[in-house]
Design goal:
By secondary structure, the protein is mostly beta strands. It is 14% helix and 43% strand. Bound molecules: flavin mononucleotide.
């Protein structure tokens, strides 16, 4: 029996997730990115992770063409980044001091952790595309994560 779409969303909302902003770079050199919770580690050796990007998102074609991305783990005081990057289109990077690292994908300032990846595989995933990337650089700092659970931002208490 098929699961109703609304019910599927409601149940998925019960899975507590860390919040990331996944970024890439366009052919024009401009930065692109979106808020994403559909991120997971895949393999330790080689170091692989995946992100699932909605085919309808503005950023989607740039992930395809650049074949690089960075995953930025948001800290508890970075909800503003999550809200900004969850709005489609526009210049989300104005007044954000990004750093262009190992792959050319932008890294946001003061994030809890980040991974810089080169895309190795691209898979169909229904209305999303699954981008698997090999991690070329990574770093993390002390701090608390921003979480998303049942449609609201949360923190570890
Ligand atoms: C908490 C949260 C998690 C999200 N997770 C994802 C995700 O994993 N993949 C995705 O494609 N969109 C996700 N979105 C939606 C995108 O952030 C949103 O569609 C964004 O506007 C896309 O930007 P763009 O069209 O400029 O690329 C999420 C949004 C929120 C608020």
């Amino acid at each position: 029996m098929a699961v109703d779409k609304q019910e599927f969303r409601r149940v998925l909302g019960h899975f507590a997730a860390g919040v990331t902003v996944v970024t890439t770079v366009g052919d024009d050199g401009a930065p692109y990115g979106l808020t994403a919770t559909a991120f997971t580690s895949v393999s330790l050796e080689p170091p692989l992770v995946l992100v699932c990007v909605d085919k309808k998102s503005e950023s989607h074609p740039h992930f395809h063409s650049s074949r690089v991305f960075a995953v930025n783990f948001l800290a508890v005081d970075q909800e503003h980044f999550s809200r900004r990057f969850a709005v489609s289109g526009g210049d989300k990077f104005s007044d954000v001091e990004v750093r262009y690292g190992a792959t050319g994908a932008p890294v946001l300032p003061d994030v809890l952790g980040h991974l810089e990846c080169r895309t190795t595989d691209i898979h169909e995933g229904g209305d999303h595309t699954i981008f698997i990337g090999r991690v070329e650089a990574a770093d993390a700092r002390e701090g608390e994560p921003l979480l998303y659970f049942r449609g609201a931002y949360r923190q570890i208490t």
